[in-house]
Specification:
Pfam families: AA9. The chain has 2 helices and 11 strands. With about 260 residues, it is mainly β. The relative contact order is 0.20. Bound molecules: copper (II) ion.
């Protein structure tokens, strides 16, 4: 009994300090190993298989103005790309995820020639996926996708995102972001980025109004970012606008 309790406390303590990050990716049955901030950089970024951008740590980024908000580090780019067809899913793999409140988003940015040459803080990103509150009763007690995403059985947390089917082929970066809002007026951003080589017969690219920068797109005064989900003006409602503007899904653009 005492041993079990101690073991559980040890797990809770580890998780409480651990935060988290995006560890691997899958496309179909193929696994792509990501960067591990707890392993020496020299063993990873020179490796021909590396597809994820170096990231700094599993700790959150607190400021919308932090340059790390793009990719959790403007650091060293990887040499390789994950191949994927437009219209297919890429799944982000987390070994576990602890937090439960706040939205999750996925973004792409086009690299004109080589993603290694791109400044992640200057390139134009567009949102392709988002999920927020799935059901009530309110923002603090409701079920968010971020909570539904958690597995506590030892298997990884999996987050599938579809590349827009009509997206123009080329080299892109993909950016996954978890925004956790469980601490009052202290948002936590957890972004990571990887390189994609998108193939397929698509001919579309989002218009200017979908293109944003990190930092830039978020406003620290945004009531969805600087938020108290326990006592704020929307605490007892299910109203929540996922920050960062609309999703571009590659459909309907030609009709505008
Ligand atoms: Cu955390």
């Amino acid at each position: 009994m005492a041993f079990a309790l101690l073991a559980w406390l040890a797990i809770l303590t580890r998780l409480a300090y651990a935060h988290g990050g995006l560890a691997n990716y899958t496309v179909g049955n193929t696994w792509y190993r990501g960067y591990d901030p707890s392993t020496p950089t020299s063993d990873q970024l020179g490796q021909p298989w590396m597809i994820q951008r170096e990231w700094a740590s599993i700790d959150p980024i607190f400021s919308v103005d932090d340059k790390y908000i793009a990719c959790n580090n403007p650091g060293t780019p990887p040499p390789s790309y994950i191949p994927i067809r437009a219209g297919d899913n890429i799944t982000a793999v987390y070994w576990y995820w602890l937090h439960a409140l706040g939205p999750m988003t996925a973004w792409l940015a086009r690299c004109e020639t080589d993603c290694r040459e791109v400044d992640v803080n200057k390139v134009k990103w567009f949102k392709i996926w988002e999920a927020g509150l799935l059901e009530g009763p309110n923002l603090s007690e409701g079920l968010w996708y971020q909570k539904a995403f958690q597995n506590w059985d030892g298997s990884p947390d999996l987050w599938p995102v579809t590349i827009p089917a009509r997206l123009k082929a080329g080299l892109y970066m993909i950016r996954h972001e978890i925004l956790s809002i469980h601490v009052e007026n202290k948002p936590q951003f957890y972004p990571e980025c990887a390189h994609l080589n998108v193939t397929g017969g698509g001919d579309l690219f989002p218009p200017e109004e979908f293109l944003v920068t990190f930092p830039g797109v978020y406003d620290k005064g945004d009531p969805s970012i600087n938020i108290d989900v326990y006592a704020g003006p929307t605490a007892n409602s299910t109203n929540y606008t996922i920050p960062g503007g609309p999703i571009w899904d590659g459909f309907g653009v030609l009709d505008k």
